[in-house]
Write a structure and sequence with these properties.
By secondary structure, the protein is of the alpha+beta class. The chain has one domain. The protein is about 50% helix and about 25% strand. It is built from six helices and six strands; from the N terminus they run αααβββαααβββ. A six-stranded antiparallel sheet has the order 1-2-3-6-5-4. Helix 2 packs antiparallel against helix 3, helix 2 packs across helix 4 and helix 5 packs antiparallel against helix 6. The longest helix has about 35 residues.
């Protein structure tokens, strides 16, 4: 009985983290999806590895994000959020060698994930469904649930890693693969 209670408690923490992180990141992905100038500034600052500029650009849309929680590389970024001594990070990055982070692909990815992030932020039952699929390593259920909302022809794979991650991989016509994921931070 105690083991079942611990498992339920862990899933509740994971669900709270996922729901909160998706809700906090939703305005950023919405802005990127709908504002070409914003996504261009964002992508350029990433490629130039301008941490201060990325910090300012992100805070235009998500002012609650602390500078310490933002990590920037030429190929992408991630932002971590903590709750109850746990940390969940959200990442978007290019995963193809010799490809740069580009505004156009970032916008296409963002347009694709906005419905998913909205559902994660607003529907606790859906979040439990996602967390359960991840924790039982049922990628078929996970993929089905995600693909109900992410209608992009560029979505290549949806995978989960028990207790920690939800990963979406997109492949665009120029051959670039991008990852958009949630993962447990340190």
């Amino acid at each position: 009985m105690k083991k079942i209670q611990e498992k339920i408690q862990i899933q509740q923490v994971q669900s709270t983290l996922l729901q909160g992180t998706a809700g906090t990141m939703l305005p950023l992905y919405r802005r990127v999806a709908n504002d070409a100038a914003y996504s261009t500034r964002f992508a350029r600052a990433l490629r130039e590895q301008s941490g201060d500029r990325i910090d300012r650009i992100i805070k235009e849309t998500v002012p609650s994000v602390s500078s310490e929680s933002i990590e920037v590389e030429q190929i992408g970024f991630f932002i971590c959020f903590g709750v109850l001594g746990n940390q969940l990070c959200n990442l978007t990055a290019v995963r193809t060698e010799n490809k740069k982070f580009r505004a156009n692909e970032f916008r296409l990815l963002s347009k694709a994930v906005v419905p998913l992030y909205f559902k994660l932020a607003t529907d606790r039952r859906f979040v439990y469904r996602i967390v359960n699929a991840i924790n039982t390593q049922n990628d078929a259920k996970l993929s089905s649930a995600v693909r109900e909302l992410v209608k992009s022809p560029y979505l290549l794979t949806v995978t989960g890693e028990s207790g920690s991650a939800l990963q979406l991989t997109f492949r665009f016509p120029n051959g670039a693969s991008y990852e958009n994921s949630f993962f447990l931070g340190q």
